[in-house]
Amino acid sequence: MIYADNAATTKMSPAAVNEMISVINSNYGNPSSLYTLGQQAKEVLEAAREDVAGVINAEAREIYFTSGGSEADNQAIISAARIGEKKGKKHIISTAFEHHAVLHTLKKLEREGFEITLLDVHENGLVRPSELEAAIREETCLVTIMYANNEIGTIQPIREIGKICREHGVLFHTDAVQAIGHIPVDVVADNIDMLSSSAHKFHGPKGVGFLYVKKGIRLLSLIEGGAQERGKRAGTENVPGIAAMAVAIKEVAAAREKNAEHLLKNRNRLIQGLSEIPHSALNGDAKNRLPGNVNFCFEGIEGESLLLLLDDRGIAASSGSACTSGSLDPSHVLLAIGRVHDVAHGSLRLSIGEDITEEETEYIIKNVKEVVEYLRGFSPIWRDLMAGKREFIL
Ligand SMILES: *Cc1c(COP(=O)(O)O)cnc(C)c1O
Fold this sequence. Notes:
alpha/beta; Aspartate Aminotransferase, domain 1; Aspartate Aminotransferase, domain 2; 2 domains; 7-stranded mixed sheet; 3-stranded antiparallel sheet
């Protein structure tokens, strides 16, 4: 099987698995306990905090462990909103193609009376910094813009965005779940105040992640209980998961450049090969995108059928069409970059992993070409397009 859905989740690295097992077996004490076994678990926890911080150029005390990217996004946004609200600031700026962990949190705040401005990400899937600057108001308490998009892989001009926020004294949060481990992230150079990350997107375990909060910025807790994570996140820490996350993040950081080179080569070949399919289009900017991300729309087919047939041929991929998640609406990301419904339904995301081979890349190209042609063979929309009863969009 060729696993080309690394944006959904990744396979844990053997070193991370070993670390997890070792901590489960040997460091099972509660880090809040005062006897030696507890304090040993506490040491594992604090060493992991140092490791994670080091990779993003943060300090250990700026790292708060969470249950993953969704929780980190929720906490950062809700905390900033509650603090802003107290100062009469109830305006938040974001984009229309954020992850649902961000968008649904913003919707909730909107129902409570917050005003939300969603910036246009344009056809190339990129925010224009000048438009962000124009949207900032006196009452803006937060800007939250993702580092890299999970569907189309576009990488935002985060450093510039952060600089604008800092100049205007507005808090800046970024969902960096897809960025960490894949592209360089430096919270100081990038002017980031808060950042969310998730271990299972960089070969760590599921159900664990972290929130970076720059020192001096207040953070409110979402979960009430004990005083773990300096009172900002109650609940006994997931010590084995956190230790494994630290191993995984150090590994991906050390191998990042080498991996990126290999991924880029295969990604570019995939883009070139799939572009040969008539009436197809790459989604998102060709250059400012994650090294492992390929996302295409093919006119006249359904993404879901494409996925199932690719699965039969041993390829695990994803579609922007949300049919799989029980909704008939096409991907909000593809709609945000201006794809019309019919076209957005025929999308395919391939998020390749570092272990992909050239043969696998060629196998994917050959099979996507065959399956798209096969599906078009009995698509009524395709028949109409070919008969000139409908206009081609792509
Ligand atoms: C996966 C993902 C999340 C959610 O992370 P979880 O750890 O699965 O909760 C949030 N944002 C982005 C961009 C993601 O890709």
